[in-house]
Amino acid sequence: MLKKNWGRIIFISSESAQHIPPEMIHYGMTKTAQVAVARGLAESVAGTGVTVNSILAVPLLPKASVTLSRAWPNNKASRKPKSKNSFFNCPPFSLLKRFETPEEVAAVVAFVASAQATSINGSAVRAEGGVIRSIF
What is the pTM of this model? Predict the structure, then answer.
């Protein structure tokens, strides 16, 4: 990449890098470290055409469950959590009020990988549907 003076390195991280779940500190720590590694790599290629970024996504439902996730806001029965920390509940702070689809996250990744995203470097790009409540 450096020889060609162009390339993209993209880490698929998680919103847990900034919004560490108390029941999964070990996971959040690894995602935070991943964002730090990406930033360090970006600094090491500064001034070149190579960019290094992280995408902060939320957990996605398997493809077979996408229909369920799209119906979630309209299905009162599915709004009742099976347990307080059930993985299959819509993220409680999601501004989308549903799970994201793999295609939605992929669209963000495709943009960050494109030539139009040259100025995005060393960033933690949020593709998490508004789950992270901070504005920074």
Answer: 0.78
- Domain count within the chain: 1
Q: Which residues are catalytic?
A: 27
Q: Which CATH number goes with the domain that contains 76?
A: 3.40.50.720
Question: In whole angstroms, how large is the CA radius of gyration of the chain?
Answer: 17
| 1 in a structural domain | no
* 3-class secondary structure, 124: strand
Q: What is the residue range of 47's domain?
A: 7-127
Backbone φ and ψ for 102, nearest 5 degrees, come out as -55, -35
Q: What is the pLDDT of residues 46-91, one digit of tens each?
A: 999 999 999 999 877 665 454 454 554 554 444 444 444 445 566 6
Rounded CA-CA distance 27/74 in Å is 32
DSSP secondary structure string for all residues of 9-44: EEEEEEGGGTS--GGGHHHHHHHHHHHHHHHHHHHH
**Tokens encoding 135:** 């504005």
Looking at the domain assignment, is residue 65 inside a domain?
A: yes
Q: Indicate whether 106 belongs to any domain.
A: yes
Tokens of 118: 């040259």
